[in-house]
Amino acid sequence: MRYAVIGTGWIAGSYIEGADIAGNWELAAVCSRRRETGLAFGQKYGVEKVFTSVEELAASDIPAVYVASPNALHFPQVKLLLEAGKHVLCEKPLTATAAGCAQLQELAAKQGVVLLEAIMMLHLPQRRVIEEALGKIGRITSARIDFSQLSSKYPAYLRGELPNIFNPKMATGSLMDLGVYCVYPALTWFGKPERIAASAAFLPTGADESCAAVLTYPDKLVTLTCSKTGQSRLGTEIIGDEGTLVIDSISKLTGISLAAKDGSRTELAGEVEKNVLMSGEAADFYRYITRPEESREEYARCTALAHAVSSVMEEIRRQAGIRFEEGIL
Length: 329
Prior knowledge:
Layout: E1 2-6, H1 10-22, E2 26-31, H2 35-43, E3 50-51, H3 54-58, E4 64-67, H4 71-83, E5 87-91, H5 98-111, E6 115-118, H6 125-134, E7 140-148, H7 154-158, H8 174-190, E8 195-202, E9 208-216, E10 221-227, E11 236-240, E12 243-249, E13 254-260, E14 265-269, H9 274-290, H10 292-320
Parallel strand pairs: 1-2, 1-4, 2-3, 4-5, 5-6, 7-10
Antiparallel strand pairs: 7-11, 8-9, 9-10, 11-12, 12-13, 13-14
């Protein structure tokens, strides 16, 4: 199936490589505000067709689009593409608000097209490894899910520049960029919590540099932490009374091990290259489009989970005081 990408950053390149691994996909065009940037990016992948506006892309006959633009642009761009009858895979977060997420999902259903938020963990074989392991650690009493990664853009910020990731006008910050990877597994494995308590630390720009939230369940506490200005070395732990599941990278589901009560450890999954990780979501995106009947329940779970995550993220933002410009959906 032919597809286009919006965006020319490293994540778009990784997705293109992942789609090649998945098979069944043919990159047909690149969409970039600057033609020269789009041409230079497209040449790396043997593509010469460049659109300089989403409106041009929407009017084309390309049936599917991968959106990797800044967060604040996701809602208007995806809405335009859905209205044009395109299938859309959009980088996380799909939207900044639960209302925006619901609006896009309703539009996709009305148009009879697939709309998917790009969350690698839902489409990785390692997820099943983890879910099997969760049944071996007894009664789960607590979990600490962390994604703290020192941003490659932080030196530019310290030089006085304002990268998108530290600009609230772009609906970014640590929660939206990294915290979403913590909320997804929490809701996937434990469901929606009874209560949420959240707080954040801010840069002078107004962007949250770190954020923490405690999700309270009837039988457990789940703590979520994320940061863009520091690097965690501990990863994630899910703690039961019979053992502990350790996950080095919660976004990639790599470095997974099971620690028994006596401290002995069994390795369950190692490292995986980023393009291979992204091939899973590319393969499922194609399957949801081309085999809707067999994929209906799985796709419906992804859609429901995306909205639930958006709702929890919005509540965390409200409590933590993370604010974006008025009108961003």
